[in-house]
Design a protein that fits this description.
about 240 residues; Rossmann fold; binds NADP nicotinamide-adenine-dinucleotide phosphate; globular; two-stranded parallel ribbon; alpha/beta
Length: about 240
């Protein structure tokens, strides 16, 4: 498939686009857009996508906290609220709004929305992030019910940890896979599962969690995130 990459850093976009072009011999296009901003962003994306038949939309862009924190103590809280809701929520709605009409005309299309396991339960100390991802999960599930009969697949993807810049995990392990391993597994579920953990290790963790009463899961996550926060604070003091 031809690929359009949309993100904010032109240099990184060009690098990935040329890697894809060389490796897969397909056409690529890049659109520079900051999803943290709302003015003009979607008008420019719309113009960039003009005339293209979009078969698959992947809503992947997302930001989280730098470390787990109590809501009112999140650094630069007002800016974080705006950025996180714009990037994690608004982008999913707006991109779907731009691309879905064409898919409906052709009676086929796939929308892959990257939520998070953090959206399956309220996750204390990542409260805003967790709530934005619950939105993505609900939005995807509602949309799938609305458009399934029209030939559209909408999938809600709910990963646990993946070794990326966001998670700050450098070395992939069985339960914290590399992005390549995770995406390969997750793509195998498209059309089979409308809501997925994406890979077997994450499905297993999800299965174990499913036995816990919600209050127990929330208490467990609070305890775990308090520990991560304490480690972060200690490290900051030492530096
Ligand atoms: N990693 C995990 O453990 C994990 C777990 C569950 C869910 N997720 C979800 O998976 C998705 C991908 O996460 P990731 O771990 O790959 O994160 P990442 O390593 O931080 O990558 C995020 C990507 O989004 C781009 N981006 C960030 N802010 C942007 C903005 N304002 N405008 C345009 N592009 C922007 C980044 O571009 P730059 O490189 O220019 O910053 C980067 O390409 C997110 O939705 C995340 O919530 C991740």
């Amino acid at each position: 498939m031809k690929v359009v990459l949309i993100s904010r850093s032109k240099e990184k976009l060009d690098k990935v686009a040329s890697e894809i072009r060389e490796k897969y011999q397909v056409e690529t296009k890049v659109i520079v857009a900051d999803f943290g901003e709302t003015e003009d962003t979607y008008t420019r994306i719309k113009a960039g996508l003009e005339g293209l038949e979009i078969g698959v939309l992947v809503n992947n862009v997302g930001i989280s906290y730098a470390y787990p924190e109590y809501f009112l103590d999140v650094p630069d809280l007002d800016k974080t609220i705006d950025q996180m809701t714009n990037i994690n929520i608004l982008s999913v709605c707006k991109m779907t709004r731009l691309v879905l009409p064409g898919m409906l005309e052709r009676s086929k299309g796939v929308v892959l929305n990257i939520a998070s396991a953090a959206g399956m339960y309220p996750t204390p100390l990542l409260t805003l992030y967790s709530a934005t991802k619950a939105f993505v999960d609900f939005f995807s599930r509602g949309l799938q019910a609305e458009y399934k009969s029209k030939g559209i697949i909408v999938q809600s993807v709910l990963p646990y940890y993946v070794a990326t810049k966001m998670s700050k995990i450098r070395k992939p392990t069985f339960d914290k896979p590399s992005p390549e391993m995770y995406v390969r597994a997750a793509l195998g579920t498209v059309g089979l599962q409308s809501r997925t953990s994406g890979c077997i290790p994450h499905a297993l963790i999800g299965w174990i969690f499913s036995f816990l009463p919600t209050s127990t899961a929330i208490n467990f996550l609070m305890k775990k995130n308090k520990q991560i926060r304490a480690r972060h604070m200690k490290k900051m003091k030492e530096n």
